[in-house]
Amino acid sequence: MSIWQEIKNTLNSFPLKSSYQINRMRPPGSCDEEMFMKLCVRCARCVEACPYRVLRRSSATKNGEIGTPYIYAEIAGCQLCMKCTSVCPTGAIDSSIVEMQQTSIGIARINEDTCMNHIYAKIESGEIEPDGTAALCNSCLNSCPLREEAIYLKDGIIPTITEKCTGCGLCVERCPIKPVKAIAVIPKGMPDAETAGYFHYLKRLGK
Ligand code: SF4
Ligand code: SF4
Ligand code: SF4
Which helix (H) or strand (E) holds 56? Predict the structure, then answer.
């Protein structure tokens, strides 16, 4: 990566940029986004109930979402403890969702251009030239509460996401690639172009 590209990535990773604020992953058990925005009364009970402090209140004013809870997986993924699902007074979060396997916050996607294992495999196959930095990394696999179900290593190397992914974002939190993680969660029920987060924001810009 060129120095200029690194500078641009660093500047773009500034957490107050609006591209971050639109990456809304709702708490596990949340209803579809449109209904969520109608039902959530911004009481913050779910935020207060979260023992891991991963729920934040949105400061974005766009579409009136200010005060609604969201998870910012690049900093802290959801531990799927399910403590927040029983406290919502309006049904914005479904209290019948009690098992982590029932949740569908979103689905993880891997950036094949920056994932260390993808790069390693490309070097092994001769697709790209080695640069002396190739290494294997199993952080996403090891951090997944549903490892081998939601994510597995294809051919022992390539991290591969399955439909059982809950979108908890723990793999995003633990991914060592900086400044832009090599894995991101596409939040459920939100159009990619608006809400897919920083990694996909860069992809859309062709970077
Ligand atoms: S499931 Fe647990 S860790 Fe995840 S947002 Fe709810 S309370 Fe927080
Ligand atoms: S508990 Fe329910 S209504 Fe209150 S902020 Fe959380 S999602 Fe919104
Ligand atoms: S692959 Fe990532 S987002 Fe999906 S369940 Fe595993 S840790 Fe959570």
Answer: strand 55-57
Q: Where are the domains of the chain?
A: 3-204
**Ligand 1 atom 7, closest CA:** 50
Q: Tell me the pLDDT tens digit for each residue of 12-49.
A: 554 444 444 445 789 999 998 889 989 999 999 999 99
What secondary structure does DSSP assign to 87-124, as a single string? T-SSSSB-TT--SGGG--SEEEEE-TTT-HHHHHHHHH
Residue 183 bridge partners (DSSP)? 110
Rounded to two decimals, what is the model's pTM?
0.83
Mutation test residue for ligand 3: of 71, 80, 139, 161, the one with most atoms within 8 Å of CB: 161
- For ligand 3, whether the C-beta of 171 sits within 6 Å is yes
**Residue 49 and residue 55: Cα distance in Å, rounded?**
9
